[in-house]
Amino acid sequence: MLKRALAFLSRAEIFTFACAWLIVLLIIGTLAQRSIGLYGAQEKYFSSWITMVGVLPLPGGRLTMLVVFVNLLAYLAQPSAWNLRRAGLLVAHAGALLLLIGGMLTAYFSNEGNMMIAEGEASRIVADDRAKEVAFIDTSPADHDSVLAYSQQWLEPGRQMKLPIEGVTAEVLHFYPQAQAFRRDNPAPDPWRGLGRIARAEPVLHPGDDEFGSAAVLRIAGAGQEIDGQYLLVENARQPDVITIGGKAIRLELRREQRILPFSLELIDFEKKVHPGTRMASAYSSTVNLLDSGTSRRVVISMNEPLRHKGYTFYQSSYIEGTPEITVLAVVKNYGRLFPYISSLVMCFGLLIHLAQMLARSRAAARKEAMP
Amino acid sequence: MKKTSWLLILLALLPGAALAQEIIGELPVQHQGRIKPLDTFARVHLLAFSGKRSPKGATPEQWLLDVLTHPDGSSPMRVFKIRSPEVVIALGLPEREDRLYSYSEMVEAIGPQEGSLRELLQREEEERTYVENQLVEAYRNVLRYQEISRSASCLLPLLKIEDPELARETGLPTDQLISYRTLVRHFGVIRGHLDTLGHLPQDQWSDAQKALVRLVNAVNRIQEDRFAHILSIIPPESSEDIDATKWLSPWEVVGTAQDTGLAAKILDGWETLLAARRNDDQASENEAAIEVRAAIRGALPDSRLERIDLENWYNRMDLFYKSVAFYILAFLLLATSWMIAPRLLRNTALISLGLGVALHIAGLICRMIIMGRAPVSTLYESVVFVGMVAALTGAVVELMRRDGYGILLGSIAGAVLHFVGFGKSADGDTMGMLVAVLNSNFWLATHVVTITIGYGCSLVAGLAGHLYLILRAFRPQAKARLDVLSRNMGGLTVVALFFTLFGTILGGIWADQSWGRFWGWDPKENGALLIVMWQLMLLHGRHTALFRPRGFAFGLVINNIIVALAWFGVNLLNIGLHTYGFAGNVATNLAIFCLVELLFGVLFYGLAYRRGQQEARA
Predict the structure, then answer these.
(1) What ipTM score was computed for the predicted complex, to two decimals?
(2) Are B501 and A347 an interchain contact pair (Cβ–Cβ within 8 Å)?
């Protein structure tokens, strides 16, 4: 029974069809990038389990990949595959399995963000590329700000968050991952408060290549009649709403999720080189001090020369001109990053063996034909 | 009469006669961030202006000297090619069959419309129509030409000192023309004289004063050319980092304290040279050219000089043009071999193909040495490289099989891609500098080389698919042959898959090394993955007999479309599929290619299928 199931699951037809479906997804997903943007297309077609086409639920990229994974696993689990005659194919398929495992690890356990440091300053904060958070920032203490942040998964309509004041809650009414804010013609009536009175946000459904900030609407309750009501939070708002309750001033912020690193980087110098006589950049680099538990080390991060430290990798990604200059480093934590290296070697090796075996076999066949 | 004209021709053919321009071509210039011979500089501009690398009846160097010695733009050479008749009408140019125009004709036509052209220039490329883009291109070319023509005007003998008093004071001659560079050293004296004019009304000026005003006006006219910095022919004095330091142009040096030492030596030489050229004085022109060359060569390190010389040689040899000739010859020989002397002609064809590949490789190696980087970084380079891989694969297949198919596949793929490359090279300097992220990286180099080899093998496999369908449609009885071809299709596809798969993964590794993510689903990556998936699907389908040889061959024809889309189409996706994108050359050609391949595939698959049915019935 198991044997028959295995034999069925390992059939190459499954892969052929899965492959054909992936090709379709790949074409649609790539073309869709024009209208819904690279990230949108990725979410909809490549990283989804199910992709909806109209009302029709169709397998998404992730589900198809899972099918391929199971298919591959079953192929390798079959005793008949372990045949010296097919050694090359076996090795190549094992390499492919490694690649898929690496992909899964990356999809679930990696995170990407970036760090901006101005010349002469140090930072240990990485802002996530995608995930957003709501932060309640109590600015009343004299010597520090106390921050209470709720990460992306809380940003769903209906979820209740507690403010850092007893009995005060905030309920998420709307969250738009990408939105545009507009000024209202007339001030909005109750229950709108603060920014929400003069501005409104509309979700952007087809962002194309442009990136828009996110926006959220929160309902604050339990803070008294004056304060209770609806608040509009806009990412990177110049003047976010501040509510004062019982002597505490609390700022409501919607921002990119921030992670604190166990070490910090201090930017000593950012340098941009151009090809002589042109404005075309030939190289960027940031000279930084890596400050970790009392020690300091000088490091140069440049294009194609990242800094790797404690599982994090820092790449020279961009810069902001001005005085002081600000460097933008992409920060990535990825557990699967070695898999492609290993798997490509394994697959390459396997295909070479396979090619050699094919050649040997065709030679043998030719010799046989040549014999009377 | 006849005798003398023959003598003149003979004189022109003597080795010394054209020496100066040859030397000029070898001189280095820094342009668009790269040090290159003036020969390349001239060719790149000629290509941009006229689509050809040399004007009718002249060498690129002759053209360049002609332009430099006519700062007023009066050079009669017609080098501006207008591609579409609409633009000829729009500019009000005289209609002409070859649509080639001289600079002065262009200026006259553009003059009244300059305002609107400048307006167009401000707009985004995508917002302009096809004709508008050509107008902008013509306008840009004219501006570029103007900059070149004026970049050496400070060295030309254009000024005359008429007042003997002024001549005596400055020690300059009155009987011959002098250059701005010579006069600029005596500006103090001239300014002094100018002050004596005071507020004297014009009708009270003496003859000397009138002459002075004429001189000053002429100087002011020349000074307008100051902006022309394109001809950076003066290397820095110390040769430590000759590549990363900015070189100077005549206008940046003349009249400043930098006009000493090496710079002065070079400018002296150029001044003599250009003056001699204007006076048609061959001998002193040659002498001056030799002087300039000696001065510059002394300032550059040998290793740099070798690269410049190599580039010169490369320019002159036209290796890729010769290579394409051999590919075409191989194809013709092969075609003839089907009629007569099969063995002899086929072997000759193989030799011809081999020579083509050798020249092709030689050209690629030259480029690698000149640029000091891996052979493939730009689209143009990928085209040339894929062509080489395809022709080489064809030659290898031929060596293994000896039945002419390898020659057929290799010569067609090699020649076609050469022509695509020639088309692409009109965009500018094909050895241009790269943006930061593409600069020197081991993974990038291996990735691009591997994936382009994959493209090449894929195209050869694709052509084998064509061949199979044709054979199947017209000679279905040749069973043995078809079987061998079918096996070869499989083998070629595995080889192609090996390179495309490995190249795609290496691309991911490069991305991981450079900006921290292995895969980002961007169109270029997806294009490469598409080829891999398609080939994986074909091979697995073949293994399970879902695809019989005929279907597999059809799949390989479609494979060509997918390669072309991933290679060129993805670039179009970024700039957009709106009007301009599809009016653009690449998009049209790509669409035609895909359509032709699709039609071919469907037609021949259908024919082969019908023949199969007929046979089954019989």
Answers:
(1) 0.81
(2) yes
